[in-house]
Amino acid sequence: MTASTLMTGAEYLESLRDGRAVYVDGERVADVTTHPAFRNAARSVSALYDALHAPATRETLTAKDDFGTVTHRFFKPSRSATELLAAREAIGCWSRMGYGFLGRTPDYKASFMSGLAANADFYGEFAPNAVRWYREFTGRGLFLNHVIINPPTDRKQAVHDMRDVFVHVERETDEGIVVSGAKMLATGSAITHAGFVAPVASAALAPGKGEDFAVVFFVRMDNPGVKLICRTPYASRTPEPFDAPLSSRFDENDAVLVLDRALIPWEDVLVHRDITRATGFYARSGFPNLYTFQSGIRLAVKLELMAGLLSLGVRANGTDTFRGVQAAVGELVAMRHMVWGLTTAMALDPEPGTDGIMLPKLEYAAAMRTYNAQVWNRVHELFGATLGGSPIVVPSSGRDLDHPELRPLIERFYRGSDTSAHDRIKLFKLIWDATGTEFGGRHELYERNYSGNAEQIRLDTLKWATGRGTVADYEGFARACMADYDPDGWVRGPWRGPSAAG
Predict the structure, then answer these.
(1) Which distant-in-sequence residues (6+ apart) come within 8 Å of 120 by Cβ?
(2) What single-letter DSSP state applies at residue 487?
């Protein structure tokens, strides 16, 4: 294998020190690698980059692409079911490093970027940009975020009537396009290298009115005119790992990306004032197939952690022998198997994409989008019903364990059925961080809306199945059943004859 040019963890952290305009708690962040709101999340991502080079994980994570570049296995297009399975193992390896609670790791945007060079012709005059961005992405292992959703300022209005809010081209220059507007939800953007900006796939861009909004481009995080306005950070409010083991290191943060007359160089543009291409790239790129594959693997890993936590929790409570409790743990294990099994089907029963690329099957991706949106709600129900108030029956802080007067009382009253007070508190602090804190609540909202609103993911399933003839096949199957009989009896099949009813 040739020498890798993929970033190390230290190189990744250094690449973030570029003067980007990130705002949180009324201040512009001087350095996201040291600010308490982003420091540990950035370090968590840096560990992913180090894993690309570590002897124990390098072979699982990396391979050569069609250009001979050593890159993450999911950063490059897969050419067979075997390669899709290998990509799944690479995604799973990274996911387990964040226990499934890092959602937008660098391999997420590979769902679009991996096929960018193979689909370059789709972008017409901007095809060279597609190839160059693919090669930069794979060669260095860039961390990209994406923003495709318009702010929910007034959803009744048409896109072209919201010029003061939605991303649009103001003017063109020799250097590029000048763009203004806002997009959301830029998850993890503060610690990424660039953002991918596009209209949402279902955007209604009217010819003659929507051209200024029909634009797709990359924007580097240090691009002048770019501002990130972040939501309340959880990491800086929960600094102690014993009390907040997830939120203190895996809070990706979410932001609104504001473009204030930002000049986007022509070399960073993929689509300019082209309504068809501005939304058509989704299907052409295989993005729906691939991002669902990546997110399903990540969710399955997350469910592995939750199944382990629930099993440990009921044992600590001494309820693990109760029939109903065992059923709850079994249901959570089954949910993990369902999600993981769908990723297996997506890999082993793929469909062809552009230029010999093999994509996870879209029908399974559609099922995954619908099923996964319901999973986390049920996880919360199972934890709430099975563990009751146990996750909040813990001391306020791990420091209480060091108090000389409290320690004997804590050892006596907080011990578990099969564990010490220290270990039981540690367990339920983790469970609460996963389910009950602001961080946990954000993850419930995140999983529910990950693939879009509840109606849209079902409408997409129907649209894709209708377009591929699947619904017509199902209707034909139903008609075949009705063709077996009429008001006079059986028309065909083994039911006909003097001894058959009717």
Answers:
(1) 127, 128, 130, 131, 134
(2) T
Where residue 157 falls (left for φ over 0; alpha for ψ -120 to 50; beta otherwise) is beta
Q: Is there a contact between 204 and 211 (Cβ–Cβ < 8 Å)?
A: no
Q: CB–CB of 285/116 below 8 Å? A: yes
Contact assessment for residue 467 and residue 461, using Cβ atoms and an 8 Å cutoff? no
Q: CB neighbours of 403 closer than 8 A, spacing ≥ 6?
A: none
Q: Is the pTM of this model over 0.90?
A: yes
DSSP 8-state code for residue 222: T
Strand partners, 358: 352
Q: Please give the domain boundaries of the chain with CATH numbers for all domains.
A: 9-284 (2.40.110.10), 286-452 (1.20.140.10)
CA distance 333 to 310: 10
> In what order do the strands lie in the sheet containing 168-172?
27-28, 22-24, 226-230, 255-265, 176-183, 168-172
pLDDT per position as a tens digit, 46-81: 999 999 999 999 999 999 999 999 999 999 999 999
Query: Which runs of E-coded beta strand occur in 354-496?
Result: 358-359, 485-486, 489-490
CB 248 within 8 A of CB 41: no
The dihedrals phi and psi of 142, each to the nearest 5 degrees, come to -60, 150
Rg of the Cα atoms in the chain: 25
Please answer whether residues 347 and 88 qualify as being in contact, where contact means their C-beta atoms are separated by less than 8 angstroms. yes
| Cα–Cα distance, 483 to 502 (Å, whole number) | 15
Element (H, E) at 340: helix 323-348
Of 266, 112, 134, 269, the residue nearest 201 (C-alpha): 112
375-425 pLDDT per residue, tens: 999 999 999 999 999 999 999 999 999 999 999 999 999 999 999 999 999
